[in-house]
Structure prediction request, 663 residues.
Amino acid sequence: MSEAVLETKDLHKSYGKGSNRFDALKGVTLSIGRGESLAIVGKSGSGKSTLMHLLALLDRPTSGEILLNGDDAARLKGRILNTTRNHTFGFVFQQFFLVPNTSVLDNVMLPLKIAGIGSRARKIQAMEALDALDMSDKAKSNATDLSGGQKQRVVIARALVNEPSVIFADEPTGNLDSATGAVVEDILLDLKKDRGITLVLVTHDADLAARCDRSIFVKDGLILEQELSA
Amino acid sequence: MKFQDILTTAIASTFRSKLRTTLTVVAIFIGAFTLTITSAIGTGVSDYINTQVSSIGATNVMTVTKAADASSSTNTGPKKYDPKTSGATTQGRVQGPPTDTNVLTASDITKIKPISGVLTVAPSVQVSPDYIQAPGHGKYVMSLNDNAALTKADLASGRQLDNSTSASEVLLPTTYLHNVGFTSAKEAIGQSVTVGITDYAGAQHVVNATVVGVQNATLFGGGVSANTALTNKLENVQATGKPATVTSSYASATITFDSSSSPAQITALKKALADKSYSAQTVADQLGSFETVINGIVGVLDAFAIIALIAAGFGIINTLLMSVQERTREIGLMKAMGMGGGRIFTLFSLEAVFIGFLGSAIGAGVAIGIGTLISGALAGGLLSGLPGLHLLQFAPTSIATIIIVVMLIAFLAGTLPARRASRQNPIEALRYE
Prediction:
């Protein structure tokens, strides 16, 4: 395995104070290699989502370190942090989070718009991403009118459009039936294989986890065990 | 995110919930519409007054009257009786019947004359002609404008009165033409008319005059104006048979002062007159008090419009708070994708400003449309007696000011929701159900 994209050292995260204090993470040390697919598996409340948010630099740990490409992520602040997140990460969510009543193309272009890319360039890039997911014919459609599977493809196109090095997928198949879910799984794992994008997948589905290179099982804020897939 | 993209996104967002945006825009529309109309009335009236003042052109003229008697003051009640100064003794001192203390007499004129700054002083002679008649037509009741010889008329046709000639000249107001027997202003010029007047003894006399011009009716009355020669002739005729014991008295006198006087010099002159208990008003003063009343009314209307706009501002706050609530996840998503809080703030502020712009631009536009129609209808109908008065006048600067002020109010209203949006935690926002 190549060098680590993301590393954590003794990560703690707690919410609240005093008697209300809740420790979501109690010391997680983890290394994610470039181009690896990692499944974070756990029940709800296990701390798997908290771990993903910390890895995606959406939240800061109470203690411990996160290294992004070997650099301390705690040093990234404000605009630089925003730019880093915009350039490095892509997100796929269970609830899709498509902007309602806007076109598929506009949704896919959103990360590029935030990055400040000109309208002509971002249209070309977004169409390429939609093409890769066989969704280019739906570019002008209203995002709200699509089926679940189509929506998740659009979301993947959006996660892909800024050519990120890591894609975070939070229960990507949770809202889909098993057939469409399987298609979406294939797409995500192919991205990893074809483009070398690191995939961090949060799920409670053991079958999906088994298709990743490596699975970590989280319980009560700690990594219970790690398992390399065959 | 580029500013242009933020702007287009903000505009697109306002159109996403059309009904809500429309209702908020309507609220702003009402305020902006009212404000545009009231400011147009203010502009129209003051513009008309300025035209009147400049057309009169008599900027070096003051009308002097006896200052109102202090005993009739309404604020402090009657003053204490003092045998030395109060009425009864005054009457005792003057021989003959009691005189009206509020009129000017020949002795007042001689008192005014030496005051420094006064170039000439002339008592306003009260001449009351009975009728005016054009050859071959009937007799019509005639009223004569005071001080016409001193002022410059707003002419519809012909020329101004010549006060140095010995020929009798009159200016007819446009409203007299039809009855007296002229079909148009042009036709009246050069025609001779006869003026009937009754003397002191009750006998009626006739004086001939030539129409030299036709004037638009003004705020100073819509009567006939006569030149000095005609006024003097009429005065002489009127005084025929007047007993020598009756002294002439005048309601007012007209003084002229140096036309290059500074406002401070004019004020000093007024003060000098006030010290001798005369009150003096320039033409601008007389119109100014009229304008003050109009400005007061417009100010009250403006205040109502501003209140409407402030209420509309709360409408914007409400709309945007709902929008922020509704788009919690969208905001969370944009933040997760690396959009900074400042940009989110700008996005929602611009939405507010755009709503403000829509409301004010549509409001001002509709106000201009409707106002122009109303103004045109009024000028041709109800206000046709005051030619040149366009009640509603839309000045581009004041309309631009209104739109900018409304957009500013909208921006201020938008800061609260925008701040809430910009402070959202992306994780909380994405978890929001």
